[in-house]
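Below is how a single chain appears once it has passed through the pipeline. First comes the sequence as given, then the structure the pipeline wrote out for it. We keep one example in the README because the format questions we get most often are answered faster by looking than by reading.
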Amino acid sequence: MLDKFAVVDIGSNSVRLVVYESLKRAPYVIFNEKILCGLGRGLSETGRMQDDAMEQALKSLKRFHLMLDKMYVTNYRVVATSAVREAKNGPAFADRIRTECHLDVSVIPGIEEARLSGLGILCALPRAQGIMGDLGGGSLELSRLSGKGTVEEKVSFAIGPLKYQSLDGETISSPKADIDRAINSLDWKNNHTQENFYAVGGSWRALAKIHIMERGYALNNVHHYTMSREEALTLTEKLSKMSYAELIRYRVHISARRLKVLSLSAYILNRLIKKLKSKRLIVSGYGLREGLLYEGMAPDVRAQDPLIAACHDIAANTGRFSEHGKRMQKWIDPLFPNDAFEPNRLRLAASILSDVGWRGHPEYRAEKVLYEVLHGRLLGVNHRGAAFIGLTLYICYGGKTGEKETAKVETLLKDTDILYANQVGLALRLGQRISGGTAKGLKSAALQMDDSNIFLNVKEKDAALVNEVVMERLSKLGKEFGLSVDVRLK
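Resulting structure:
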């Protein structure tokens, strides 16, 4: 069994402890605590971290050390970023962390921060291609993701929005000149433009929350939320020109401290999108901490598909027969002979999860699995893919498309996606019934399809497995394909 892994992240705005259950491919977070300390506040004005901020951070870090001990976590990383890196009193503060908090902190360079944040994107999306941007309180890191699982060029700029706040919380004069100068100095080649831009950092996630709210989007989930270039530019243009008094309207959804830096954060993002000619903005809930997690994994673990690994973990923890998923995928394969890679991958994910709802009340199983898929932050899948998996499982558990529970979800899908979800969901529903959810049960029957028919071939000695419910589900499956159905004993 793998040991727990933890990250202590000492940033410009907050200090945070995150504990993961292990270094497996898609581990659960079992503890997550953030304390807002504002180490980077007033750094441009004074060049130093403030005493009250440092004392609050040290108090929190002492607690984190105790929590690590109580949780028996021995494998962890402690990193400090921009504020400690740039402040004149940063080295002395790092020494106090080591001696008073008993944490072996590494003050990482900006280039290393850019690399780790890029790895964080790859932790969730191994084939990500484009530019990663991580906006912290005190700095901006950029790195290029190759599309082949590697982080390429990296750069760091000391232009985080918290850095430009005075000690009283107001923005100092002319930060935009510094920002423009830094971004204009970016000399990456033209072939690095017109790619995806992966946005990391709390301020940029706050922008996504606003866009989700104003758009009336189906999911309140910023991880992998996507905007077109035009949508991102329109949003950031608007927010970058708003005063704090105007931004306060979003206080219900975003903290007051975050709103203080929102306008400047929007300005930085707007300038980057224009400079890089980014074609699409993809918001990520993963960054530096997940990069440390990803780097700590064994190579064979990193090579696993994060979506499929996550589904296997969920099935093992909540399903009846966790080994059933891949066999179910193979059992329904004859109905989908021409699947491309991504539909086949999503169908495998749904097959693995097809047994996870049985512990719920029968009348609410469909709703339960739909909710958990949509709000469980599956890795390695976008919102459209998650919506497909959720809708497929909803149908597998007896739900139907067009119901009020699926109305918003269906807005994320194309008509062809909905048809495919119906077909896969009904096939899984048939397989679950005839097999009783067991791998052994699936061996008693097999599906076969030709141009006119779907056949359920059943071993003659197991003919009693076919009852009225099985026939009803087979009939519904045939109607969804527009084919006749028949049972053949062999």
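The longest strand covers residues 29-36.

See the next section for the split statistics.
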